[in-house]
Write a structure and sequence with these properties.
This protein has ten helices and eight strands. By secondary structure, it is of the alpha+beta class.
Protein backbone atom coordinates (compact mmCIF):
# COMPACT_ATOMS: atom_id res chain seq x y z
CA UNK A 1 0.00 0.00 0.00
CA UNK A 2 2.81 2.40 0.88
CA UNK A 3 4.59 1.95 -2.46
CA UNK A 4 1.31 2.30 -4.33
CA UNK A 5 0.45 5.47 -2.41
CA UNK A 6 3.88 7.02 -2.89
CA UNK A 7 3.82 6.24 -6.62
CA UNK A 8 0.30 7.63 -6.92
CA UNK A 9 1.18 10.86 -5.14
CA UNK A 10 4.22 11.57 -7.28
CA UNK A 11 3.05 10.55 -10.76
CA UNK A 12 2.35 13.17 -13.51
CA UNK A 13 0.32 11.66 -16.38
CA UNK A 14 1.15 12.42 -20.02
CA UNK A 15 -1.70 11.71 -22.43
CA UNK A 16 -2.44 12.13 -26.12
CA UNK A 17 -0.36 12.86 -29.22
CA UNK A 18 1.81 15.97 -28.87
CA UNK A 19 2.22 18.89 -31.28
CA UNK A 20 5.21 21.22 -31.10
CA UNK A 21 5.26 25.01 -31.14
CA UNK A 22 6.97 25.11 -34.55
CA UNK A 23 4.27 22.90 -36.08
CA UNK A 24 1.51 25.11 -34.71
CA UNK A 25 3.23 28.29 -35.97
CA UNK A 26 3.62 26.86 -39.48
CA UNK A 27 -0.05 25.93 -39.44
CA UNK A 28 -0.98 29.46 -38.34
CA UNK A 29 1.12 31.13 -41.03
CA UNK A 30 -0.63 29.00 -43.65
CA UNK A 31 -4.23 29.16 -42.51
CA UNK A 32 -5.09 32.19 -40.38
CA UNK A 33 -7.20 35.08 -41.66
CA UNK A 34 -4.36 37.50 -40.94
CA UNK A 35 -2.01 35.45 -43.14
CA UNK A 36 -4.45 35.54 -46.06
CA UNK A 37 -5.05 39.26 -45.67
CA UNK A 38 -1.35 40.08 -45.54
CA UNK A 39 -0.66 38.02 -48.67
CA UNK A 40 -3.50 39.70 -50.56
CA UNK A 41 -2.21 43.10 -49.45
CA UNK A 42 1.28 42.22 -50.66
CA UNK A 43 -0.16 41.00 -53.96
CA UNK A 44 -1.98 44.33 -54.34
CA UNK A 45 1.23 46.34 -53.80
CA UNK A 46 3.13 44.04 -56.15
CA UNK A 47 0.60 44.64 -58.94
CA UNK A 48 0.60 48.37 -58.25
CA UNK A 49 4.39 48.46 -58.55
CA UNK A 50 4.21 46.43 -61.77
CA UNK A 51 1.71 48.99 -63.11
CA UNK A 52 4.05 51.83 -62.12
CA UNK A 53 6.98 50.22 -63.95
CA UNK A 54 4.82 49.51 -67.00
CA UNK A 55 3.76 53.17 -67.22
CA UNK A 56 7.42 54.24 -67.33
CA UNK A 57 7.92 52.24 -70.53
CA UNK A 58 6.95 53.54 -74.00
CA UNK A 59 3.16 53.91 -74.34
CA UNK A 60 1.43 53.57 -77.72
CA UNK A 61 -2.09 54.93 -77.78
CA UNK A 62 -4.74 55.53 -80.42
CA UNK A 63 -7.20 58.33 -79.69
CA UNK A 64 -10.27 59.00 -81.86
CA UNK A 65 -12.39 62.03 -81.00
CA UNK A 66 -15.54 62.76 -83.01
CA UNK A 67 -17.22 66.13 -82.34
CA UNK A 68 -20.20 68.15 -83.52
CA UNK A 69 -20.70 71.93 -83.45
CA UNK A 70 -23.70 74.05 -84.41
CA UNK A 71 -23.11 77.81 -84.86
CA UNK A 72 -26.07 80.19 -84.96
CA UNK A 73 -25.49 83.95 -85.10
CA UNK A 74 -28.54 85.73 -86.48
CA UNK A 75 -30.97 83.66 -88.60
CA UNK A 76 -32.05 86.80 -90.57
CA UNK A 77 -28.57 87.82 -91.62
CA UNK A 78 -25.77 85.86 -93.23
CA UNK A 79 -22.36 87.53 -93.37
CA UNK A 80 -19.54 86.27 -95.49
CA UNK A 81 -17.17 86.09 -92.58
CA UNK A 82 -19.64 84.61 -90.13
CA UNK A 83 -22.07 82.09 -91.58
CA UNK A 84 -24.55 79.86 -89.87
CA UNK A 85 -23.46 76.23 -90.18
CA UNK A 86 -23.26 72.77 -88.62
CA UNK A 87 -19.86 71.17 -88.34
CA UNK A 88 -18.92 67.54 -87.80
CA UNK A 89 -15.27 66.60 -87.33
CA UNK A 90 -13.23 63.60 -86.33
CA UNK A 91 -9.69 63.67 -84.98
CA UNK A 92 -7.55 60.49 -84.97
CA UNK A 93 -4.19 60.43 -83.23
CA UNK A 94 -1.65 57.60 -82.96
CA UNK A 95 1.01 58.59 -80.45
CA UNK A 96 4.04 56.88 -78.92
CA UNK A 97 5.05 58.59 -75.68
CA UNK A 98 7.88 58.05 -73.22
CA UNK A 99 8.53 59.60 -69.84
CA UNK A 100 11.97 61.18 -69.52
CA UNK A 101 13.01 60.50 -65.89
CA UNK A 102 16.18 62.56 -66.20
CA UNK A 103 14.29 65.78 -67.05
CA UNK A 104 10.78 65.25 -65.73
CA UNK A 105 8.85 65.68 -68.98
CA UNK A 106 7.34 63.56 -71.74
CA UNK A 107 8.74 62.92 -75.23
CA UNK A 108 6.36 61.80 -77.97
CA UNK A 109 6.29 60.83 -81.62
CA UNK A 110 3.32 59.91 -83.75
CA UNK A 111 0.89 60.95 -86.46
CA UNK A 112 -2.46 62.71 -86.59
CA UNK A 113 -5.36 63.28 -89.00
CA UNK A 114 -8.37 65.62 -88.81
CA UNK A 115 -11.48 65.51 -91.00
CA UNK A 116 -14.02 68.34 -90.88
CA UNK A 117 -17.36 68.38 -92.71
CA UNK A 118 -19.53 71.52 -92.88
CA UNK A 119 -23.32 71.53 -93.41
CA UNK A 120 -24.62 75.00 -94.37
CA UNK A 121 -28.22 76.08 -93.94
CA UNK A 122 -28.46 77.68 -97.42
CA UNK A 123 -26.67 74.77 -99.12
CA UNK A 124 -23.81 77.02 -100.29
CA UNK A 125 -20.60 75.13 -100.61
CA UNK A 126 -18.08 75.37 -97.86
CA UNK A 127 -14.80 73.47 -98.21
CA UNK A 128 -14.41 70.06 -96.65
CA UNK A 129 -11.14 69.96 -94.72
CA UNK A 130 -8.58 67.19 -94.28
CA UNK A 131 -5.53 67.92 -92.14
CA UNK A 132 -2.85 65.24 -91.88
CA UNK A 133 0.29 65.24 -89.84
CA UNK A 134 2.22 62.11 -90.89
CA UNK A 135 5.00 62.80 -88.42
CA UNK A 136 4.94 64.65 -85.10
CA UNK A 137 7.81 64.71 -82.62
CA UNK A 138 8.01 66.77 -79.49
CA UNK A 139 8.71 67.23 -75.82
CA UNK A 140 6.57 68.80 -73.13
CA UNK A 141 7.04 69.63 -69.48
CA UNK A 142 4.54 71.52 -67.37
CA UNK A 143 6.92 72.87 -64.69
CA UNK A 144 10.59 73.39 -65.51
CA UNK A 145 13.07 72.62 -62.75
CA UNK A 146 10.79 70.10 -61.05
CA UNK A 147 11.19 66.39 -61.81
CA UNK A 148 8.13 64.46 -60.57
CA UNK A 149 9.32 61.16 -62.07
CA UNK A 150 12.41 61.02 -59.86
CA UNK A 151 10.25 61.50 -56.78
CA UNK A 152 7.64 59.01 -57.98
CA UNK A 153 10.32 56.37 -58.43
CA UNK A 154 11.65 56.94 -54.91
CA UNK A 155 8.14 56.82 -53.41
CA UNK A 156 7.02 53.71 -55.30
CA UNK A 157 10.19 51.80 -54.50
CA UNK A 158 9.82 52.76 -50.82
CA UNK A 159 6.16 51.68 -50.90
CA UNK A 160 7.08 48.31 -52.41
CA UNK A 161 9.86 47.77 -49.89
CA UNK A 162 7.42 48.66 -47.12
CA UNK A 163 4.97 46.05 -48.46
CA UNK A 164 7.68 43.38 -48.44
CA UNK A 165 8.66 44.17 -44.86
CA UNK A 166 5.03 44.39 -43.79
CA UNK A 167 4.29 40.91 -45.14
CA UNK A 168 7.26 39.42 -43.31
CA UNK A 169 6.41 41.41 -40.20
CA UNK A 170 2.84 40.13 -40.31
CA UNK A 171 4.03 36.52 -40.45
CA UNK A 172 6.14 37.15 -37.36
CA UNK A 173 3.15 38.78 -35.66
CA UNK A 174 1.15 35.65 -36.43
CA UNK A 175 3.91 33.54 -34.88
CA UNK A 176 3.89 35.81 -31.81
CA UNK A 177 0.11 35.61 -31.37
CA UNK A 178 0.19 31.86 -31.98
CA UNK A 179 2.83 31.53 -29.26
CA UNK A 180 0.60 33.36 -26.78
CA UNK A 181 -2.36 31.12 -27.52
CA UNK A 182 -0.15 28.03 -27.64
CA UNK A 183 1.23 28.66 -24.17
CA UNK A 184 -2.16 29.59 -22.82
CA UNK A 185 -3.30 26.10 -23.82
CA UNK A 186 -0.02 24.46 -22.79
CA UNK A 187 -0.16 26.07 -19.34
CA UNK A 188 -3.83 25.16 -19.03
CA UNK A 189 -2.96 21.55 -19.88
CA UNK A 190 -0.17 21.57 -17.31
CA UNK A 191 -2.48 23.05 -14.69
CA UNK A 192 -5.15 20.50 -15.58
CA UNK A 193 -2.64 17.67 -15.19
CA UNK A 194 -1.68 19.03 -11.80
CA UNK A 195 -5.32 19.37 -10.70
CA UNK A 196 -6.16 15.85 -11.90
CA UNK A 197 -3.19 14.52 -9.98
CA UNK A 198 -4.22 16.44 -6.88
CA UNK A 199 -7.82 15.25 -7.23
CA UNK A 200 -6.73 11.65 -7.57
CA UNK A 201 -4.45 12.04 -4.58
CA UNK A 202 -7.18 13.72 -2.50
CA UNK A 203 -9.63 10.93 -3.35
CA UNK A 204 -7.11 8.27 -2.35
CA UNK A 205 -6.13 10.00 0.89
CA UNK A 206 -9.75 10.57 1.85
CA UNK A 207 -10.66 6.94 1.16
CA UNK A 208 -7.71 5.71 3.27
CA UNK A 209 -8.57 8.17 6.04
CA UNK A 210 -12.17 6.94 6.16
CA UNK A 211 -10.93 3.37 6.62
CA UNK A 212 -8.56 4.50 9.36
CA UNK A 213 -11.30 6.54 11.02
CA UNK A 214 -13.30 3.35 11.45
CA UNK A 215 -10.57 1.94 13.65
CA UNK A 216 -9.85 5.27 15.36
CA UNK A 217 -6.46 5.79 13.68
CA UNK A 218 -7.46 9.21 12.24
CA UNK A 219 -8.95 12.09 14.20
CA UNK A 220 -12.17 13.76 13.12
CA UNK A 221 -10.31 17.05 12.47
CA UNK A 222 -7.87 15.30 10.12
CA UNK A 223 -10.74 13.55 8.32
CA UNK A 224 -12.58 16.85 7.85
CA UNK A 225 -9.38 18.47 6.63
CA UNK A 226 -8.98 15.74 4.00
CA UNK A 227 -12.61 16.15 3.02
CA UNK A 228 -12.08 19.90 2.58
CA UNK A 229 -8.91 19.26 0.59
CA UNK A 230 -10.83 16.86 -1.63
CA UNK A 231 -13.57 19.45 -2.24
CA UNK A 232 -11.03 22.17 -3.03
CA UNK A 233 -9.24 19.82 -5.42
CA UNK A 234 -12.53 19.10 -7.18
CA UNK A 235 -13.33 22.81 -7.57
CA UNK A 236 -9.82 23.53 -8.86
CA UNK A 237 -10.15 20.66 -11.32
CA UNK A 238 -13.44 22.01 -12.70
CA UNK A 239 -11.91 25.47 -13.10
CA UNK A 240 -8.84 24.01 -14.82
CA UNK A 241 -11.00 22.00 -17.24
CA UNK A 242 -12.96 25.12 -18.15
CA UNK A 243 -9.80 27.15 -18.74
CA UNK A 244 -8.27 24.35 -20.81
CA UNK A 245 -11.39 24.19 -22.98
CA UNK A 246 -11.41 27.96 -23.51
CA UNK A 247 -7.70 27.97 -24.38
CA UNK A 248 -8.18 25.07 -26.83
CA UNK A 249 -11.08 26.83 -28.55
CA UNK A 250 -9.10 30.06 -28.73
CA UNK A 251 -6.17 28.36 -30.46
CA UNK A 252 -8.37 26.29 -32.79
CA UNK A 253 -10.41 29.35 -33.76
CA UNK A 254 -7.27 31.35 -34.55
CA UNK A 255 -5.85 28.53 -36.64
CA UNK A 256 -9.23 27.84 -38.29
CA UNK A 257 -8.74 24.14 -37.69
CA UNK A 258 -10.07 21.26 -35.61
CA UNK A 259 -6.64 19.69 -35.15
CA UNK A 260 -6.84 20.17 -31.38
CA UNK A 261 -9.61 17.86 -30.17
CA UNK A 262 -10.20 17.25 -26.50
CA UNK A 263 -7.26 15.29 -25.13
CA UNK A 264 -4.81 16.50 -27.81
CA UNK A 265 -1.48 17.41 -26.25
CA UNK A 266 1.06 20.14 -26.90
CA UNK A 267 4.80 19.67 -26.56
CA UNK A 268 6.20 22.44 -24.39
CA UNK A 269 9.69 23.53 -25.53
CA UNK A 270 12.08 23.48 -22.60
CA UNK A 271 15.41 24.57 -24.11
CA UNK A 272 15.96 28.29 -24.57
CA UNK A 273 17.29 29.77 -27.82
CA UNK A 274 20.20 32.12 -28.18
CA UNK A 275 20.51 35.03 -30.64
CA UNK A 276 24.18 35.30 -31.57
CA UNK A 277 24.15 39.10 -31.98
CA UNK A 278 25.17 42.02 -29.82
CA UNK A 279 22.61 44.51 -28.53
CA UNK A 280 23.72 47.12 -31.08
CA UNK A 281 23.43 44.60 -33.92
CA UNK A 282 19.96 43.61 -32.74
CA UNK A 283 18.86 47.25 -32.62
CA UNK A 284 20.26 47.91 -36.09
CA UNK A 285 18.52 44.80 -37.40
CA UNK A 286 15.24 45.98 -35.91
CA UNK A 287 15.62 49.41 -37.52
CA UNK A 288 16.43 48.04 -40.96
CA UNK A 289 13.52 45.56 -40.92
CA UNK A 290 10.87 47.71 -39.25
CA UNK A 291 7.85 48.28 -41.54
CA UNK A 292 6.83 51.24 -39.37
CA UNK A 293 10.14 52.98 -40.01
CA UNK A 294 9.91 52.14 -43.71
CA UNK A 295 6.39 53.58 -43.80
CA UNK A 296 7.58 56.79 -42.11
CA UNK A 297 10.49 57.08 -44.53
CA UNK A 298 8.08 56.74 -47.44
CA UNK A 299 5.82 59.44 -45.97
CA UNK A 300 8.87 61.67 -45.44
CA UNK A 301 9.89 61.20 -49.09
CA UNK A 302 6.41 62.24 -50.21
CA UNK A 303 6.57 65.29 -47.93
CA UNK A 304 9.93 66.30 -49.43
CA UNK A 305 8.44 65.94 -52.89
CA UNK A 306 5.59 68.29 -52.00
CA UNK A 307 8.04 70.75 -50.47
CA UNK A 308 10.16 70.89 -53.62
CA UNK A 309 7.06 71.24 -55.82
CA UNK A 310 5.70 74.05 -53.64
CA UNK A 311 9.10 75.75 -53.69
CA UNK A 312 9.17 75.71 -57.51
CA UNK A 313 5.64 77.09 -57.66
CA UNK A 314 6.39 80.12 -55.45
CA UNK A 315 7.82 82.32 -58.20
CA UNK A 316 7.40 82.35 -61.94
CA UNK A 317 6.32 79.01 -63.38
CA UNK A 318 7.64 78.01 -66.80
CA UNK A 319 6.34 75.20 -68.99
CA UNK A 320 7.42 74.18 -72.49
CA UNK A 321 5.91 72.24 -75.38
CA UNK A 322 8.22 71.86 -78.37
CA UNK A 323 7.38 69.80 -81.44
CA UNK A 324 8.33 69.44 -85.11
CA UNK A 325 6.72 67.47 -87.90
CA UNK A 326 5.04 67.40 -91.29
CA UNK A 327 1.60 68.84 -92.01
CA UNK A 328 -0.72 69.48 -94.98
CA UNK A 329 -4.25 70.85 -95.45
CA UNK A 330 -6.54 69.96 -98.34
CA UNK A 331 -10.17 69.56 -99.29
CA UNK A 332 -9.63 65.86 -100.00
CA UNK A 333 -7.76 63.07 -98.29
CA UNK A 334 -5.27 62.42 -101.10
CA UNK A 335 -4.31 66.07 -101.30
CA UNK A 336 -3.68 66.21 -97.55
CA UNK A 337 -1.21 63.33 -97.82
CA UNK A 338 0.69 64.60 -100.85
CA UNK A 339 3.44 67.15 -100.50
CA UNK A 340 3.42 67.59 -96.66
CA UNK A 341 5.08 70.70 -95.28
CA UNK A 342 7.68 70.77 -92.56
CA UNK A 343 6.83 72.81 -89.51
CA UNK A 344 8.34 73.71 -86.12
CA UNK A 345 6.35 74.90 -83.18
CA UNK A 346 7.43 75.95 -79.74
CA UNK A 347 5.28 77.06 -76.87
CA UNK A 348 6.53 78.47 -73.61
CA UNK A 349 4.07 79.02 -70.79
CA UNK A 350 5.13 81.67 -68.32
CA UNK A 351 2.97 82.19 -65.27
CA UNK A 352 3.85 85.01 -62.88
CA UNK A 353 1.71 85.43 -59.75
CA UNK A 354 1.04 89.12 -59.22
CA UNK A 355 -1.67 89.03 -56.55
CA UNK A 356 -2.28 85.62 -55.00
CA UNK A 357 -2.77 86.82 -51.40
CA UNK A 358 0.11 84.68 -50.20
CA UNK A 359 -1.29 81.40 -51.55
CA UNK A 360 2.03 80.16 -52.97
CA UNK A 361 3.97 81.20 -49.86
CA UNK A 362 1.42 79.57 -47.55
CA UNK A 363 1.48 76.41 -49.66
CA UNK A 364 5.28 76.25 -49.36
CA UNK A 365 5.17 76.88 -45.61
CA UNK A 366 2.52 74.16 -45.22
CA UNK A 367 4.73 71.73 -47.16
CA UNK A 368 7.73 72.60 -44.98
CA UNK A 369 5.67 72.14 -41.81
CA UNK A 370 4.40 68.76 -43.02
CA UNK A 371 7.94 67.64 -43.82
CA UNK A 372 9.03 68.59 -40.31
CA UNK A 373 6.05 66.70 -38.94
CA UNK A 374 7.04 63.54 -40.84
CA UNK A 375 10.66 63.96 -39.73
CA UNK A 376 9.59 64.08 -36.09
CA UNK A 377 7.26 61.13 -36.62
CA UNK A 378 10.17 59.08 -37.98
CA UNK A 379 12.34 59.99 -34.99
CA UNK A 380 9.55 59.05 -32.59
CA UNK A 381 9.06 55.66 -34.26
CA UNK A 382 12.81 55.02 -34.09
CA UNK A 383 12.85 56.00 -30.40
CA UNK A 384 9.87 53.78 -29.57
CA UNK A 385 11.42 50.88 -31.47
CA UNK A 386 14.75 51.24 -29.66
CA UNK A 387 12.92 51.32 -26.31
CA UNK A 388 10.89 48.25 -27.25
CA UNK A 389 14.03 46.35 -28.28
CA UNK A 390 15.88 47.22 -25.06
CA UNK A 391 12.87 46.32 -22.91
CA UNK A 392 12.34 43.05 -24.75
CA UNK A 393 15.99 42.07 -24.42
CA UNK A 394 15.97 42.82 -20.68
CA UNK A 395 12.71 40.92 -20.22
CA UNK A 396 14.01 37.96 -22.25
CA UNK A 397 17.21 37.68 -20.23
CA UNK A 398 15.39 38.07 -16.93
CA UNK A 399 12.91 35.31 -17.75
CA UNK A 400 15.65 33.11 -19.16
CA UNK A 401 17.30 33.29 -15.75
CA UNK A 402 13.94 32.87 -14.03
CA UNK A 403 13.22 29.83 -16.17
CA UNK A 404 16.44 28.20 -15.04
CA UNK A 405 15.62 28.97 -11.41
CA UNK A 406 12.02 27.72 -11.63
CA UNK A 407 13.20 24.54 -13.34
CA UNK A 408 15.51 23.93 -10.42
CA UNK A 409 12.70 24.80 -8.01
CA UNK A 410 10.35 22.28 -9.64
CA UNK A 411 12.93 19.51 -9.32
CA UNK A 412 13.58 20.41 -5.68
CA UNK A 413 9.84 20.66 -4.92
CA UNK A 414 9.26 17.24 -6.49
CA UNK A 415 11.99 15.72 -4.31
CA UNK A 416 10.64 17.39 -1.17
CA UNK A 417 7.11 16.29 -1.94
CA UNK A 418 8.21 12.71 -2.63
CA UNK A 419 9.97 12.58 0.74
CA UNK A 420 7.00 14.17 2.50
CA UNK A 421 4.59 11.76 0.80
CA UNK A 422 6.74 8.84 1.97
CA UNK A 423 6.84 10.23 5.53
CA UNK A 424 3.07 10.73 5.52
CA UNK A 425 2.53 7.20 4.24
CA UNK A 426 4.75 5.93 7.06
CA UNK A 427 2.97 8.08 9.63
CA UNK A 428 6.00 10.30 10.27
CA UNK A 429 4.19 13.59 9.51
CA UNK A 430 0.66 14.95 9.64
CA UNK A 431 -1.69 16.06 6.85
CA UNK A 432 -0.75 19.73 7.25
CA UNK A 433 2.90 19.03 6.49
CA UNK A 434 1.88 16.95 3.50
CA UNK A 435 -0.51 19.69 2.23
CA UNK A 436 2.19 22.32 2.63
CA UNK A 437 4.64 20.26 0.53
CA UNK A 438 1.96 19.72 -2.09
CA UNK A 439 1.15 23.45 -2.25
CA UNK A 440 4.83 24.29 -2.59
CA UNK A 441 5.19 21.82 -5.45
CA UNK A 442 2.11 23.22 -7.19
CA UNK A 443 3.34 26.78 -6.71
CA UNK A 444 6.77 25.90 -8.12
CA UNK A 445 5.17 24.24 -11.13
CA UNK A 446 2.88 27.22 -11.77
CA UNK A 447 5.84 29.61 -11.59
CA UNK A 448 7.72 27.40 -14.02
CA UNK A 449 4.84 27.41 -16.52
CA UNK A 450 4.45 31.18 -16.18
CA UNK A 451 8.18 31.81 -16.73
CA UNK A 452 8.19 29.44 -19.68
CA UNK A 453 5.22 31.18 -21.34
CA UNK A 454 6.65 34.68 -20.81
CA UNK A 455 10.08 33.64 -22.07
CA UNK A 456 8.79 32.21 -25.36
CA UNK A 457 6.31 34.98 -26.06
CA UNK A 458 9.09 37.51 -25.38
CA UNK A 459 11.45 35.57 -27.63
CA UNK A 460 8.99 35.61 -30.52
CA UNK A 461 8.28 39.29 -29.90
CA UNK A 462 12.00 39.94 -30.32
CA UNK A 463 11.91 37.96 -33.57
CA UNK A 464 8.97 40.13 -34.68
CA UNK A 465 11.00 43.27 -34.00
CA UNK A 466 14.18 42.07 -35.70
CA UNK A 467 12.84 39.52 -38.23
CA UNK A 468 15.87 37.47 -37.22
CA UNK A 469 16.13 34.15 -39.04
Amino acid sequence: MRKFLIGLLCTIPLLGQAQSLEQVIRLAQDSTIAAFQSRYEYEYHTRQFARFEALRKPQLELNITPSYMKLITDPTRDYVYLRNFNRFSTNAQLMLSQKVPGLGGDAYVGSQALWSEYFLNDQRDMPREFVTMPLVMGYQQSLMGYNPYRWEKAVEEARMESARKQLKHQLYLIAEETTRRFFRLACAQGTLDMCERNMQTADTLYAIAKEKAGIAMVTLAELRSLELQRLNAYNALQSARNEEQLARESLSSYLRTDDFPDGGRLTIPTLTRQIALSDDDILELARSNSPDIQQCQMALTEARQQQEKASREQGAKVGVDLNVGMQQLSSNLVGSIKDPRFYMMGAVTLSIPIVDHGAAKSGHEAAVAWKERETQALREVERALAEDVRTTLANLRAHEQMLAQTTEAVALADDVFALTAENYANGLCDINTYSLAQNRRDNAYNQYLSALAVYWTTYYHLLTLTQYE
